[in-house]
Amino acid sequence: MMGQGAVNLALGGGEFYLRHARIIKATMTQTKNSKVNRAWINEHINDPYVIKAQREGYRARAAFKLQELDDSFGLVKPGQLVVDLGSAPGAWSQYLRRKLLTSADKGQGDTAAVTSAAVIALDILPMEPVDGVVFLQGDFREADTLSRLEQAVAGRPADLVVSDMAPNLSGIASADAARIAHLVELAVEFAKAHLKPDGALVVKLFHGSGYDDLVRLFRETFRVVKPFKPKSSRDRSSETFLVGRGLKIR
Ligand SMILES: C[S@@+](CC[C@H](N)C(=O)[O-])C[C@H]1O[C@@H](n2cnc3c(N)ncnc32)[C@H](O)[C@@H]1O
């Protein structure tokens, strides 16, 4: 039997969201669909990745998706500058920060690598601070947000840009596909302007309409393009990730 912390992680948040999780849980038990909702909560609190996230101090199970991507493609290295788009509640930022420091601690890096390592995170929602991570709150689609992000990057080319951004879905397939595509296209534009020539971009996207066009955009932009579905991403979710490495054009 898991405690409130697991329910909280199952609902997608960290300690920060504990109060909201309680409210959601209370509301759910009052609805007609309470059986379905209870089944959903039960499934989540028994989810091995939720339990693992709680044990390892991650704010969300999403951390393990990035870990699998990293294990498969060797993305995160000491001394890197990493930009984390759609970062809240902060599990990817936590993973990045830990990996950048751990690699250096293990002697795979050096002192210079530790001091130059940086994570710049951005989300439209607030995010509880993650030690060593610079956080900006803003809508990535807005020019003002982009300009604040560019100021934070301060002309230093990024080694890695990761985007787990997911828009609020309306349920209207064509509108949702367009929203998802727009965020991916903006992430590609940002990568073209700010990645090192041999840097990498990871984006989350969804199978269905728009997927093929986004793969085509990646192939036009990067020398190597790989789709990847982490085991920690639920089977029933159409969510998948694209990894692009090495810019074709500067
Ligand atoms: C699946 S969550 C990210 C989880 C995160 N990677 C983690 O590990 O904790 C998707 C995030 O994308 C953010 N997002 C969606 N649209 C955005 C936008 N236009 N600009 C910035 N963030 C956005 C949402 O607010 C949400 O926090």
Oligomer: single chain
Beta-strand fraction estimate: 15-25%
What is the count of helical runs?
10
Contiguous runs where pLDDT drops below 50 for at least 5 residues:
1-24, 107-115
The description of the largest β-sheet is: 7 strands, mixed
Summing up helix and strand content along with how strands pair, one would put the structural category as: alpha/beta
Into which percent range does the helicity of residues fall? 40-55%
- N→C terminal distance: 53 Å
Q: Are any ligands bound, and if so which?
A: S-adenosylmethionine
Strand adjacency order, main sheet = 3-2-1-4-5-7-6
Give the SSE string: HHHHHEHHEEHEHEHEE
Rg, nearest Å: 18 Å
| Average pLDDT level | 84
What is the number of E strands? Answer: 7
Overall, the morphology is: globular
Describe this structure in words.
The chain is α/β, with parallel strands linked by helices. It is 46% helix and 20% strand. It contains ten helices and seven strands. It has helices at residues 4-10, 18-29, 34-45, 48-56, 63-73, 91-105, 111-116, 143-153, 173-194, 211-221; strands spanning 81-85, 118-123, 133-137, 158-163, 195-206, 222-228, 239-247. A seven-stranded mixed beta sheet has the order 3-2-1-4-5-7-6, sandwiched between helices. α1 packs across α2 (18-29), α1 crosses α4 (48-56) and α9 runs parallel beside α10 (211-221). The longest helix is centred in the C-terminal third of the chain and has 22 residues, at 173-194. It is globular. It starts with a helix and ends with a strand. The protein binds S-adenosylmethionine. Residues 59-60, 62-63, 86-92, 122-125, 139-141, 164-167 line the site of S-adenosylmethionine (SAM).
